[in-house]
Amino acid sequence: MTPLTNTDIQHQTPSRHSASSECTIEGSATVALKVGCFRVDPSSTTGKRFYLFQMIILPFIPIAALIVQNCCTMVSVALANRDAMAINKQIKLTAEVVELLTTLQFERGQVAYYIFTDGNRTSLNSIFKETNEKISLCWGNWNEVFKGDKHFQRHMDHFRQNLTRSDDSALREMNWYNIANEYVLDQLSEIIRETSVSGVWRFLIAYKNIICAVENFSIATVYGLYYFGRGQLGLESFSMFVRYDSLAQDYLTATQHFSLVIYEEYQRFQANIPLFENITVRRLEIYSNEPRKSDFHIAEEYHATVSLFLAELRRYQEKIHSLISEKMYWDMNHASHQQAVAIVILVMVLTISPVIIFFVRNATQTIQTFAGTLITRTLELKCEKRKSDRLLFQMLPPPVVKQLKQQRQVPAESFESVTIYFSDIVCFTELSAVSSPMQIVTMLNTLYRLFDFRIQKYDVYKVETIGDAYMVVSGLPQRNGNRHSGEIATMSLDLLHGVRHFVIPHRPGEKLQIRIGINTGPCVAGVVGTTMPRYCLFGDTINTASRMESTGEAMRIHISQKTKDSLDLLGGYHIQCREPMEVKGKGMMNTYWLLGKEDSFISSCEEDFIHIEKAPDFLQIIGQD
C-alpha cells in the first residue's frame, strides 16, 4: 500500500480558517438573488438601495396618478366654472337686450296708438326720452356693429320728427320699429348661440321663443289698432297681421316643449288666458276684416287689453329668465364646490404623500435590518449546524450519521472480514501512580493526537479510546475488499515508528512503550445507546485482537494467524513466527510478529509533532465561534 503524501494529509485535515471560510462563502451564496434580468444581493448596500427605491416607487405610482387625476379634474372644473361665469355674463347681457327690446316695443305701441287714435303727442315725448336713456345705458355693452349709440340714435330722432297720421305713410313709418327690433333680436340670437353648448340651452331657446312671441304680438297689435282706428286693413296689411299673429301663436306654443319646468309655467300662463277673452273676440273681428266705422274707443280698449296681455307674456318671459338664472347659479356653485373639493383633495394628497413615503422608507429599512439580522442568524445557524455535524462525524461513522439525521433506525450490520487493531501503554499503571491526573491527561492527549493525525492517511476508522487503550478497525463501516489487513498493518508500523520518537511531556528522560495486537475476522457493528449513542463492534474477532494486544510485547506488533494469512495474500510484509502460546479462552494459538514492510514510507516525526501542537479537531470546531 502507498501511504498518502503530506499534501493529501493537509487536505484531509480541517482547519479553523477553512471551516470559517466555508461558512462565509455558503452564507453569501444563499443571499444572492436574481431579480428580473439583474442579480441583486439584498444584503449589499446597492441591493438595499435598489429595494428601498423600489418600495418607494411602488406607492408613489398611484399617488402620482392620483395627483395627476386631481390636477386634471381641477383644471376641468376651473374651465367649467369659467364657462359658467361667461355664460352667466352673457345671460345678464341678454336681460339688458330684452329690456331695450321691451322699451322699443312699448314705444312702438304708443306711437301706433298716437297715430291710429287721437293720442297726445306730449305723452310720446316722455316715452322717447325714456327710450333714449335706455339706449345710452346699455347699447354699447353688447352692440358690436355700432361701437356707440349715436348712429342708431340719429335714425330714431329722424323717424320721430317725421311722424304723420296719414293712412298712406303710417304703417310704412311703423316699419322702422320692426327693423330696429329685428336688429336687436339678431344680436340676442347671437348671444344665445354662443351659450348653446351649456346645460341651459333648452331654457335659452324657450326664452328666445317667448321674446319672439312678444315681438310678433306687438307688431300684430299695430295692425289691430290700425283696423279699429281706420276701419279696414288693406290686403297687404291684412296678410302682415295674419303672418305676425300666427308667428306669435307658434312661438308661444313652442316654448312648452323644451323643459318640463317651462311646460308647467306655460300651463299656469294658459290658465290666465280666459281673463283676456276680449282679445280673442277682437282678433276674430280683425281676421274678418269687414269694413267698419273708425272707433277710437274700441281701439283704446283693444290697446289696453293687449297691453295687459303683453305684460302677462313678459311675466312668463321673466319667469323663464329666472329659471335660467337659477340654473346658472346652481351650475356655478356646483363648479365652485367641485373646484374646492379638488383643491382640498390635492392638498391632502400632497400633504400625506411625503408621510406615506416616509413610513414606507422606514418600514423598508426596518425590514432590511431585520432581513440582515435574519441572514446573519441563518449563517450562524448553518455554521453551528456544520460544527455539530463535524463533531458528530468525530463520534460516529459518516454513513451512520446520515441515517441518524434522516431519523432512520440504524440496524446492526454484519461484516464478513475486518481487521481490528488494539494497543495500550506498557506499565501505564505504574506511570499513573507516579504522575498527577493532569499530567496523565496531557500525555494521553498528546499521544492520541499523534495517533489521530497519522491514521488519517489510511482507510481505517477509529472506534474508541478507553484509558490507555486505542482501538482502530478497517473494513467497516465502508467495506474495502481484502485491503483492510494491509491498511491496519501499515498503520501499526507507522504508529510504532511515531511512538519511538515520542517524549513523555512531564518525564522527558523516559521513553513511552506500547503493545499492539491485530486480528482479522468477522464481526457485527451497530449503534448502541440513546442518550450517548456509540458505534460498537461485537464478535470473537474483537476478543482475539484484545488477547493479541495483552499477550504481546513492548514495542512489537502481535498478529494472529488470520491476519498473517491475509497479509501473505497482499505480500510485501516482513513477518516472524512466534512460538505457539496459550491464549486465555482460546487455547494454543499460532501467532506472529509483524516486523516491517517492503518499500514502506514513514513520515518524519518532526512533521507529526508540528501537527500535534495544534488543537484537536473537536476543539477547533468548538473554538470557531
UniProtKB/TrEMBL annotation:
GO molecular function, one term: peptide receptor activity
UniProt-listed SMART domains: CYCc
One example of a Gene Ontology biological process annotation: intracellular signal transduction
Subcellular compartments: Membrane
Entry's EC annotation: 4.6.1.2
Keywords: cGMP biosynthesis, Glycoprotein, GTP-binding, Lyase, Membrane, Nucleotide-binding, Receptor, Signal, Transmembrane, Transmembrane helix
Residues covered by region (Disordered): 1-21
Membrane spanning residue stretches: 51-80, 340-360
Protein's membrane topology: Single-pass type I membrane protein
Pfam family name, one: Guanylate_cyc
Domain Guanylate cyclase: 419-549
One Gene Ontology cellular component annotation held by this UniProt entry: plasma membrane
Family listed: Belongs to the adenylyl cyclase class-4/guanylyl cyclase family.
PANTHER family tied to this protein: GUANYLATE CYCLASE 32E, GUANYLYL CYCLASE
Protein name (record): guanylate cyclase
